[in-house]
Amino acid sequence: MAEAVFRVVQAGPLVSVQDGGRPGMMRFGVPASGGMDRKALALANLALGQPEGSPVVEVSLGGLTLECVSGRVSLAVTGGAFVVEAGGRKTGSWQVLTIEAGERLVIRRGHWGAWAYLAFAGTLQAPRWLGSAATLASSNLGGGVLKAGQDWVVAGADVLPPRDLPRPVSARPRRGLHVVMGPQAHCFAPEALEAFATGPWFLTPQGDRMGVRLKGPALALGDALSIPSEPIVRGSVQVAGDGVPVVLLADHQTTGGYPKIATVLDDDLDAFAQLRPGDGVAFTPISAEEAAALGRFRAERWAEYKARMRERTGEAVN
């Protein structure tokens, strides 16, 4: 079978292999990991006719430069509005293009977005851990963090027609987040709950794949630090003893004893992950019933969008 080989020339911090993650492993103390922007990861794969959870390269604001050492393969780039250079031709993300031996692929930060996703029309040969190539950044288990000098192989490399990809509205960074208060909202003073809902809040540079710290009013905890350690979910807004909230993301710990003032609607998290340090964010509290209804509505729209993407991909390939 045809294959393409890429050499890493430069890779910024947290540029790693990710896939659909490890759902169902948290009871064993294993974070789910996977893409920070799961929708962009899925669409990069679907654009190439791949299963939506296939391994891709997740590119941070530090950027990535690959050299195609041998072979020829098509690829898709989605996520933020990154600048893409392929074989000296400058373009942007949200497209399918082809690169061949002797050419370089450069992906670097553009006008907006914090993460880009690079999928290949073939199988990226990446190590697995517990059945997944998703990289747990704290341990480097899984596919791994990309480093200069490494070679990566794409097996079954295929060449597809170039095309622009439709970018869903939900791909843009989301500054307004829906939250369900709790599970420890009752541990906070009323003025802390009001401060959380009114802000203002800004993302700080203190963030990684585990979560991001926010800058804003201090949230007085009272006796909230006396709670026992308990399971944590993606989107938990955890408040440490300094009164600073942290929104937990893909590589979050599985248990913890700090109180959670609120939980972000899961569907808001992918677009939230595309915000950059310094961007503002606001929280809108809704009831659990409203969150469930909104989540179901968006899940239906997302399923419809993926179906249209599969149809367009089939038409483009055929």
The value of Rg in angstroms is 20 Å
The amount of helix comes to 10-25%
Number of helices: 4
Strand tally: 20
What amount of the residues lies in strands? 35-45%
Specify the biggest β-sheet.
11 strands, antiparallel
The whole-number mean of residue pLDDT values reads: 94
Query: Alpha-carbon distance between the termini?
Result: 21 Å
Would you list the SSEs in sequence order as H and E?
EEHEEEEEEEEEEHEEEEEEEHEH
The structural class is alpha+beta
- Overall shape: it is elongated
Low-confidence stretches: none
Describe this structure in words.
The protein is α+β, with helices and mostly antiparallel strands. It is 17% helix and 36% strand. The chain contains four helices and 20 strands. It has helices spanning 38-46, 190-198, 266-272, 288-317, and strands spanning 3-11, 16-18, 56-59, 64-70, 72-86, 89-92, 95-100, 104-120, 123-124, 151-155, 163-164, 176-181, 201-207, 211-215, 230-231, 236-239, 245-248, 255-256, 260-264, 280-285. Strands 1, 2, 3, 4, 5, 6, 7, 8, 9, 10 and 11 form an eleven-stranded antiparallel β-sheet that branches. A seven-stranded mixed β-barrel has the order 12-19-16-17-14-13-20. The radius of gyration is 20 Å and the shape is elongated. The mean pLDDT is 94.
